[in-house]
Amino acid sequence: MLDYDFHCHSNISDGTLTPTELVQRAAGRGVKVLALTDHDDVDGLSEARAAAEGLGMVFINGVEVSVTWRSHTLHIVGLGIDPDYPPLVEGLHAVRSGRGARAQKMSDELAKAGVGGVLAGAYHYANNPNMIGRTHFARYLVESGHCKDVKSVFNRYLVKGKPGYVPHQWASLGDAIGWIVGAGGVAVLAHPGRYMVGRHSMGKKTMQELLAEFVELGGQAVEVVTGSHTQEQYAEFARYAEQFNLLASCGSDFHGPNESYRDLGRLPDLPIICRPVWQSLGVQ
Ligand code: AMP
Ligand code: MN
Ligand code: MN
Ligand code: MN
Q: pTM, whole model, 2 decimals?
């Protein structure tokens, strides 16, 4: 069992706990080294760091950047970043800035599909309105009785090909890696197995092209153990990590109690062939 968790969300993005509550929960579950990786925003880091250090934990500054690569939306986690590095701050600001107009369009598209007037409800769930996203819509659609849980809202309304899905241009892969590496961090390809399931997913050849390009652009690690991988995918991405000479990361991708596949910490060990990402984060 690992005491490391390098991927989770607070209510600065689409988690439900405040940074302090998140850190307290992690500590209570035995996490010794924690990275907060909110989507496209670093505003929770100072509060989380203070809480973590107060509890004797090691805290790693993180972020999860939304990226458009070919026709795919990818997530790139940055670990060990300087959150004040100006190109990172400006880059994340630019990524966030499209979210308001996108949310309006999502609401319009849902209305056409017979689900009217959801914008205000979605914003009600967004503690940080600059970070309004699909999860906030999903929570509202559950509360208002349209679906039984968040997962069902995504499957019915919010994934590619469904009525409330609005295509969006996020950061480029090169920019995201550049901001992270420039900020002194390690760029990690998040939950790669997720890009290989579903109707619009990538095949093995495209995954290999992505990994090659990711390395070429300065990416250094890949998530092997994550809340969205199966046991088979731990092995599969451990092999990819070896093949592409990437470090391996592990994180729950926790968003909130009763909502995530995995709670904080208590993650299975990385496969033995992996070189753990914490070796390059100065953590033993
Ligand atoms: P956004 O950045 O607004 O596109 O929202 C992306 C977030 O939606 C992800 O970080 C997940 O938290 C959540 N999400 C994406 N796909 C799903 C899914 N199929 N089921 C549940 N949550 C999802
Ligand atoms: Mn999320
Ligand atoms: Mn993600
Ligand atoms: Mn995440």
A: 0.98
